[in-house]
Amino acid sequence: MWIGWFLPPVAAYHAHDHSCGWTNKQVLWRRLRQRADAVLAGATAWSRESWVDQIAEELVNCPLGVHVIELLDAETKSLDLSRSRQMGFGLYNVVSLWNIALTGWPTFGLLHRLCRRAFANSTGTHRPARGAFVVRAAQRARRRYESNASRGVSDLELLHSLEVDLNQLRSSWFARFDGGGAPVTEVATRWLGLDAMEPSCEMWAELATLQRQLRHRFELPCASGARRLDGAVCPGCRLAAQGFWLDERRVAEAALAQLGLPGQPEEPAARAAERRAPGAWATATVLTSEDLFRSIRHDGQGGSEDWEDATAIVLAYVDALRTLAFSLRRAGRHGAASLGPLLVLLSLRQGEALPQEARESLEALEEQGLIQLLHLPIPPQHLWPRAWGKLQLWQPRGYDLVLYLDADILVLDDLTSLFRAAAEGVDAAAALTRSMMGLNGGVMLLRPSSHIFHALRASLEELPSWKGLSRWTGRPWWNTPPETSNGSDFGSYGDQDHLNEWLATSFRFAGELQPGGGCARQPWQRAYVDVRDAEPGSKQPLGTFCTLPVGFNFCATAGCLDQLASKEHHLALESLSHGWSAGRSQALPVQVLHWPGALRKPWQRCLSSTRSRLDELWWKTFQEACLEAPKAAPCRVKCFD
From which domain of life does this come (predicted)? Predict the structure, then answer.
């Protein structure tokens, strides 16, 4: 009976957060939610303005937002009952009442308002037993939540208890309002509680009250989507995902316990200094406005809030770079030799510039010795600034080896052993994703070479002509013709799919990098090899490519940990068990933690109760780095606690 036809697994949709705070129209979605709140409060009347039309068809990207638009439209016109049936039995089956409550979208209040209008002279006092049952279930859920909150139970316990109660409510609701073979209009009115025989107006009222209490507890007071009222950067502002992250913490902690990972790295033993040529190795990352501003509107309709968000996002990434660089320096104190400051390659389009606060902070961090700035030439119009920045890593600059690291990374252990192992015979290396079928470009070791630089640039120049599907993700290379999208509307996973294809077809594969040097084929690489060997490589390879052990790019998000613990990705678990640190007693057997995903960054966990033990490692390092922050580069990310 239930359908979820409008929720396909697309890249733009984030399955664990329905607040729509990650889309490129996030400012308009926030504006809609604020307008809906004002309508419910009686502060304004609903009128469908032109900006609403821009998002009204974004069902795939923000189904709950579109649902709110349709409920608001019902204020001034008749409700489309056929559409309501599809929306109700699809959306409310795919997304739990608990999740909807945490999104902050005031759907419950709008449904209660609609229901009461249908019974203008009734408040639900005359209810048959069947309708009253779901009302009592909603009341129990709300009262138990209030009781638990008054007793001071933890946020995790509070939400878990509420989730159980709301799941029971939904089961009862669905069972009693299942339309079966009834006409569409009857099914819709029954589901909405508009059926005179089985009204459920008060169920919506109870859920609306419960949602207001949740928003009061978990939403942060903000001036914009990423900035607090006092001006501090708060990446989770106005994002009701703070509540979702509490559940993710529970998932992460359970997975860590099942995996037997302690969550605290063992201090590496100090080693005798090793002689090597100064400047032979380097670590690097790329900072680009294209990457940082991608969720911000550029058509001017976002107003000053758009710019506030853009500035705050950049400042959050500056703090992330500070933390990454500090973790590298701290780990290097126990190693053979310091790797020097983190190279930060700035890749900006023509006419773009970082906000002044960000520029001043980066310059102060460079003066402190944590980073070294490298301003790149303006990228060609048809190349992503991010792809251009990574391309520039191959340009010879006096380094034998360069280790690229994403900004959302924390280094736990000395990395000089990695450089030593790759000193000879390895031209490129990257870790496999947790599915072990493709590479993740978040950590990549490479040997700069003019020849390889020009070969990669030629491949990027040819990319707009690529047709069909990527073998690495099964998705089209382009969503829209590249000539109309300035080479930025990849259908595949952006430059990562290109990296996989380029390495597979242009390099000789030798296996996994070994601690003593060289590479060797391993059993857990078989899935990757099958995909890689499905198409022939070059007869004149550019060099030798190896994979890095999983521990050098360990995914620290709740989803990744859960998939490891459930053995869904058993090959990654096998690789981890044979990693370079696997035999170390009482240690987290990884060298590098990585938090991929738009809503998976540790600095977004503004409530401490949302942080897993691995998230706390990032926050501890960040706070230590802040103690040494230069006056001109204060730490900007701040939260309630």
Answer: Eukaryota
